[in-house]
């Protein structure tokens, strides 16, 4: 059966090139294209693709937040990250967030097609050469995301973006007290005392994208 893909990337030429290349493969069909995280979530809910192929850096909503929101509504969603970042922090952050795979934009078309097919088959697909060369770092590196609940991760990203508890409550449709409780729990779990420390931690972990 044809693998139905929704593609999200804010660079038009990149998105169009990837889309044309994938549609030339008889086993794959790009059924939707998006240029930001908010549009991606709407497309996923409407089209129910077999694979979501997405960038990390997108307007209106970062890839990390988009992954969390997608999986909160479609827990079986299969997400493949297409990124220019080859740092281990990004790979581990995407894996912790729930992505099934991670492939670099510099990869060949054949490698991308193979990765899409693996993810569609519910297999994981992460860069072997990167994880091997960084195996020691991977063992030492623990993403802040891994100890937080899905809701806490949403609050984490909003705090990292500089939002107040009042604004977070409005954005996530919750009470101010609930937002403050989530914020307090995050600080306790991550051994932090302020939003400034959280932002520094997010930056070191490569999560500010």
Question: What is the structure about, briefly put?
Answer:
By secondary structure, this protein is α/β, with parallel strands linked by helices. The protein contains 11 helices and 5 strands.
Architecture blueprint of SSEs:
Layout: E1 3-8, H1 12-23, E2 28-34, H2 37-47, E3 51-54, H3 63-73, E4 79-83, H4 88-97, E5 101-104, H5 109-120, H6 128-133, H7 135-140, H8 150-160, H9 165-171, H10 176-190, H11 195-204
Parallel strand pairs: 1-2, 1-3, 3-4, 4-5
Helix pairs in contact: 2-3, 3-8, 8-10, 8-11, 9-10
What does this protein look like?
- Helix 3 packs antiparallel against helix 8 and helix 9 crosses helix 10 (176-190).
- The protein is built from eleven helices and five strands.
- Strand 4 (79-83), helix 4 (88-97) and strand 5 (101-104) form a beta-alpha-beta unit.
- The radius of gyration is 17 Å and the shape is elongated.
- The chain has 209 residues and is α/β, with parallel strands linked by helices.
- The protein has a five-stranded parallel beta sheet, with helices on both faces.
- The chain starts with a strand and ends in a 5-residue tail after the last helix.
- GO terms for molecular function: DNA binding.
- Residues 4-120 form the Response regulatory domain.
